[in-house]
Amino acid sequence: MSTKVSLDDVERVAELAHLKLTPDETQGMLHDLNAILNYVAQLNELDMDSVVPLAQVSELQGSGAASTLRGDATQPSLDRAVVMREAPETSGVFFKVPKVIER
Amino acid sequence: MTGGSWERRETTVTGSYAEKPKTLAELRQGIASGRVKAADLAGSYFERIEKADPQLNIFLSLTRERALEQAARIDDAAAKGDLLGPLAGIPVGIKDVLVMRGAASTAGSKILKGYHPPYDATAVARLESAGAVLLGKLNCDEFAMGSSNENSAYGPVRNPFDLDRVPGGSSGGSAAAVAANLAVASLGTDTGGSIRQPAAFCGVVGVLPTYGRVSRFGLIAFASSLDRIGPFAGNVRDAATLLSVIAGHDPADATSSSAPVLDYAAESDKSAAGLRIGVPSEYFGEGLDPEVRQRIEQGIDALRAAGCIIKPVSLPHTRYAIPTYYLVATAEASANLARFDGVRYGYRSPASATLSEMYSHSRDEGFGAEVKRRIMLGTYALSAGYYDAYYLKAQKVRRLLAEEFLRAFAEVDAIVTPTAPTAAFKIGEKSGDPLAMYLADIYTVTASLAGICGVNVPCGNTAAGLPVGMQVLASHLREDNAFRVARAVEAAHI
Which residue on chain A is closest to B351 by alpha carbon? Predict the structure, then answer.
């Protein structure tokens, strides 16, 4: 758990996260990630083999938190024109992005 | 305004912008009787904002037109003698991570600059239906990630008690707005302490409702298993009134609870005498400022004098809460923030030849340093080969933390602690050191992970005149207990 993060790791994770970091940012991130991961390594002190992970407090008895889905019924949705107005580039019907496939 | 001029003075309480708003009951009665016009009240708040906000930087945008239309509706209804909602004519501010139809919603980020969402968050809509007059959107840390408001892309909010100090975060604008009386009440959000800690730093009441108590539809998500929406107000009863308005099931949020909503203001009127109060020694150890400790101990003495039964309780895993929180929260954030891709809304980098470049350039140019740091940490913790060691392990510790709270609440009705280890710190003091900043949340993240509720109630000042806050925690859906205890602390005027 106290694995040291390398520059290669930072670059790989940045790619996974779709972040184009500058060289300065990459160096800073290397330092910060190692400092934070070194700090969280204290969790290794705990023996947790028999503990069941808790993803949502609704799993706890008496928490009152729900996890119910509404009925699968058609409902009015937002007006397309209003939604499209917020996009950087659209055809009016579709969102437009740079070309994905070269022909 | 009582303090004389608005101009900046040095860092003493005499130069403070702090001013408590009138109570909801007083204001609402004035409006209902026609003595006070909601339109005039709203106008006077917009004037106050224009004068003070160039120094405080609390509001990111104003929604004047919508506010004045609502105020006119309230005045008409009052003139006709119609039944008025519980918040009729009350000027309220909204943290900018909650969307309001047609109003700029930035989440404190450049990546959402210019975004005008086409709908209202449920909590916002419920406030307005109850008669609230929505003044505008409040500054906060970018995507609610921060403990000082210094991570806002639009500059830090200044603490109304001392302009060189932070208001806390991430809901710094929401807390400061009430502290400076630029709004009577406000909404904030709390993922690891983002309502309670700024409420403590600004000397106001802030409520962390039970997870699921308030619908999050229309909240720009940070960490979905932790995020909550809650109110700020100048006193406990008003905060309780707001919670009753915004709480309750919403078909648009599958995590919202259908448990009945209590009249929390009436609950808060009940005496705290006879309630059992737990004091966990783990929250009074190393790192706690001696002045803060002294005030909290005075608060505990006041509770004893009010007839509460004070008992020690043990929460031995507390020290593992910060590492657990920062793994869980960043993992969820890295997934939630994947939606900001320059396609459907917000910022798109102009210089991108390919789709992949467009994503990564837009995100690198649009996000600030702390947001990138958390996305990176979360992506790392979820990535192949590390998932079990980090994310899964954190979820296991989360269960231990939650279960130890449940055991404690079998024996006590509420638990009291300091809300933060120190009073408000200086702007710039921690901004260069992410770990030091994370430790500002050391007493608040536990309740976040366990899903329980809590209230920050002001508990005196330091010798330098900075507010100290007591955190009153109660079990799931027992906001009534938290409010009763907070009222007793408030009544002691520490």
Answer: A98
Give B20→chain A minimum CA distance, Å.
Answer: 34
Whether residue B113 lies in the annotated active site: no
Instruction: Please answer yes or no on whether B255 and A99 come within 8 Å at the CB atom.
Output: no
Count how many domains chain B has. 1
Tell whether B136 is covered by a domain.
yes
Q: Which domain holds residue B144?
A: 18-275
Instruction: Give the CATH fold of the A1-46 domain.
Output: Histone, subunit A (1.10.20)
In this complex, is the C-beta atom of A69 within 8 Å of any C-beta atom belonging to chain B?
yes
Instruction: Enter the pTM of the model.
Output: 0.95
Is B418 a domain residue?
no
CB B158 within 8 A of CB B165: yes
- Which residues in chain A are contacts of B369 at CB distance < 8 A? 25, 28
Task: Give B458's contacts (C-beta < 8 A, 6+ positions apart).
Answer: B200, B203, B204, B205, B467, B468, B469, B470, B490
Residue B97 forms part of a structural domain: yes
CATH number of residue B23's parent domain: 3.90.1300.10
Please name the residue ranges forming H helices in B270-368.
290-305, 321-336, 355-366
**Interatomic CA distance for residues B421 and B470, integer angstroms:** 11
pLDDT tens digits for chain A (103 residues)?
456 899 999 999 999 999 999 999 999 999 999 999 999 999 999 999 999 999 989 888 777 766 677 788 898 989 999 999 999 999 999 999 998 877 6
User: pLDDT digits over B114-167, tens only?
Assistant: 999 999 999 999 999 999 999 999 999 999 999 999 999 999 999 999 999 999
Domain ranges of chain A: 1-46
The answer to whether B395 contacts A53, with C-beta atoms less than 8 Å apart, is: yes
Cα torsion through B13, B17, B19, B24, rounded to 10? -150
Residues in chain B with CB shorter than 8 Å from the CB of A98 are 352-355, 357-358
